[in-house]
Amino acid sequence: MNTLKPTPLERRFFTPGVIVLCVLALNGYAFLLARFLFGIGAVTNLSNQYPWGIWIAVDVAAGVALAALGHVMHREEYTVVIRPALLTAMLGYTFVALGVCIDLGRWYYIWHPLVMWNGTSVLFEVGMCVMTYLAVLYIEFLPIITERFIGRVALPGLLSRMNALVESLLRVLDRSLGKVMFIFIIAGVVLSTLHQSSLGTLMIIAGPKMHPLWQTPVLPLLFLLSAIAVGYPMVVVESLLASRSFKLKPEMDVLSRLGSFAATLLGLYLAFKVGDMVIRETFVYLSEFTTESVFFAVEMVVGIIIPLRMLLSRKVRHSPPLLFVAALLIVLGVLLNRINTFIVAYTPSYGLEPYFPSFGEVSVTVGFVATMILLYRAAVRIFPIISVPKPSHERGTKYALRGGSA
Amino acid sequence: MENSQTGRRNFLKHAALLGAGLAPVAARNAKAAPDNVLSEDRMGVLVDTTLCIGCRSCEWACKAAHELPTKPLHDYQDRSAFAERRRPDDRALTVVNEYDAGEKFPVYVKVQCMHCDRPSCVSACIVGAFSKQASGAVTWDSARCIGCRYCLVACPFQIPAFQYEEALRPDIVKCDFCFARTDSGKLPACVDVCPMEVLTYGPRGDLIKVARERIRRDPERYEPHIYGEYEAGGTSWLYLAGADFAKLEFPDVGSKPMPGTSEAIQHGIFAYFIPPVLLYALLGSIMWIARKRSESESEEPYEHP
Question: Which of A63, A215, A335, B146 would disulfide-bridge A210, Cβ 3.0–4.6 Å?
Fold first, then answer.
């Protein structure tokens, strides 16, 4: 047995890298403020011909695919990566919701879909699923919070009278969560499956406005398969980044195994993507030299074929830098696929000038990503998320307290 | 504001959903949505582009009827507006463009919402802010809209416009077939003002007969095609032209209703909620079996579902 246990990290928060992230985040907020004061048109390059830009393609569509890693596995031997993955998923989906919100013209009506239903709307289904899924992710995160605070509740000042009450609430929560958590874990997987595929269905109604390389009735299946394929690579990227940033030993045992799973899933995705292309005979568009054909080729070769070939090699799977590169290519490939589906493929016949994201749009997206990384960094200092190889000295205490309450 | 028939139907739909929570009800109603409001004598407009002289009076009348800021009618004589290709937007619900289709005279084409029989916007809207009225009009309800612009993505004719410069309460803007005017027995403003009788307002079925008769009588003058009769599953607005419709920038949208594929997929995935529930049950049992196996090590075994 190894002695790894998730523990709050004791690291300096501010480093030069963190300060850069803070600057990027603040820059994003400045443009966000302008968006709320002067309207969407003041900050973005969106138009009546191109109504959706990178806020939808990257913040929402790619965000949903890349943050789906929360449910990739719930097996004992993967404990070391489950909690960081859950944190990433929770932060990712929170920012997906924020991304949707800032893109809505009437953002304060974001609750409308809860009471105004339209069963034929794919967007309605995506919205409901994402909202429910976000709630499920928060519930799944609760045990980490109870673990952190049980036996350690110390509210400041007058509130300290509430200590005992909060303490007992946490204990009740902790005990009941253990019994019902499986409901939420399964619900999470089902909801994921539903909205990952429906995000693909979203663009089908655009019909001939979508380039045939991407417009296919199997879009939902391709979106689902790619979201499943990108789950493990995302865990690998995140885990290797975190262990480097926090100067811990990379979890290569687990990660190289995830690498070989990823290869299988990526192969499946590739098979369906090529099969779709052959059946609909869309490969003819690849002989033309257009923006669409180039982006499609990059997505296929750099985002799928090269990393797949890499992951099939044992050497790559056991080398942290090479495994990182392969996993990162897959992640970027899926990111590019979402950008392609929502932006590059969208070529309306009356498009007066093609859409290219404005500096403000990019700033807001970058600002959101920076904020997410900062929150991740803060969370791993507060909560027991990252496994560190020292036996936890609090372990005995916690169990003693738990026993006492039972 | 909202048509009472559609409104009541929506209410019933929601009441059924909320009350019983029954998926079969949801699926049946959702599928039926646009079909059962299509009345046999729903109205339409026939646009005979061979008669249009490009006076743009319709643009003026439209703005006046919808209380949009407009220059005086006289200023619309200015032909320089034809220098650039224009699209309807939040300040103009209809525009007229000029085309050189290789004929003796230029061709003028009025553009506005086509008022589809199976509208994408009605199908796509996340909150059901669009409705297909029994009269044929496709209308938008400001009280529901959240400004997500999925209608702009969905519309095959790229008609709905969004108020990008409006910070607090941006609207979706498009031709509403003068719903308020026709409801009180008046003609749509553009039809009313047109001095050349380019626009004919009437029951859609009759208009198709009129259009066919015009093509039959003067096959030299007309392309043998009524744009809108079958396009995107049929539209309330119908066009006749003397030149190839593709040359006049009419989009090739096919004859199937635009929401068809996405609704079919959607109803496949959610058929009576059976697939999601089956998936849930399947995963539940896998998890339960896995738990059973490792139960001896587990201090707190999960109860199976």
Answer: A215
What pLDDT sits at residue A15? 85
- Measured CA to CA, the distance from residue A136 to residue A183 in angstroms comes to 10
Is there a contact between A206 and B89 if contact means CB atoms under 8 Å apart? no
Measuring CA to CA, how many Å separate A307 from each of A250, A318, A399? 20, 14, 45
Burial of A246 (0-12, 13-18, 19+ CB in 10 A): middle
Chain A contact set for B27 (CB, 8 A): 119
Task: Tell me: pLDDT of B147 over 80.
Answer: yes
Q: Which residues 200-219 of A are in CB contact (within 8 Å) with B?
A: 201-209, 217
Structure tokens at A228: 């499943």
Long-range CB contacts (< 8 A, 24+ apart) of A353-356? A354/A50, A355/A45, A355/A46, A355/A47, A355/A49, A355/A50, A355/A53, A356/A45
d(CA A183, CA B303): 10
Q: CA A344 to CA A298: how far, in whole Å?
A: 13
| Contact criterion met (CB below 8 Å) for B176 and B160 | no
Q: What mean pLDDT comes out for the span A372-378?
A: 94
Q: What pLDDT digit, counting tens, does each position of B50-74 carry? A: 999 999 999 999 999 999 999 999 8
Contacts of B123 in chain A (CB under 8 A): 120-121, 205
Query: Quick check: helix, strand or coil at residue A303?
Result: helix
Contacts of B269 in chain A (CB under 8 A): 194, 197-198, 220
Question: Which of B164, B250, B292 to mutate to test binding with chain A, by most A CBs within 10 Å of its CB?
Answer: B164
Whether A123 contacts chain B with CB within 8 A = yes
Residue A107: its chain B contacts at CB < 8 A? 146-147
- Taking Cα atoms as reference points, which of B147, B153, B100, B189 lies closest to residue A112? B147
ipTM score here? Answer: 0.88
Half-sphere exposure of A100 (CA within 13 A, CB side): 26
> Given CA atoms B147, B148, B149, B154 in this order, what sign does their dihedral have?
negative
Give A125-153 pLDDT, tens digit per residue: 999 989 998 998 899 888 888 888 888 88
Band of pLDDT at residue B297, cut at 50, 70 and 90: low
Alpha carbons A204 and A210: distance in angstroms, whole number: 8
Q: Is A125 on the interface with B (CB under 8 A)?
A: yes
Q: How far is CA B231 from the centre of its chain?
A: 12
Biggest alpha carbon–alpha carbon distance for chain B: 90
Q: Do A105 and B150 touch (CB under 8 A)?
A: no
- Closest by CA position to A227, among listed A363, A331, A358, A351: A331
CB atoms within 10 A of CB A179: 12
Residue to test with chain A: of B91, B146, B151, most A Cβ within 10 A: B146
- Tell me the two tokens of residue B294: 């490792």
Q: Which residue of A has its CA nearest to B279?
A: A190
> How far away is chain B from the Cα of A188, in angstroms, using its nearest Cα?
10
Cα torsion through B240, B243, B246, B252, rounded to 10: 30
Residues facing B202 on adjacent strands: B44
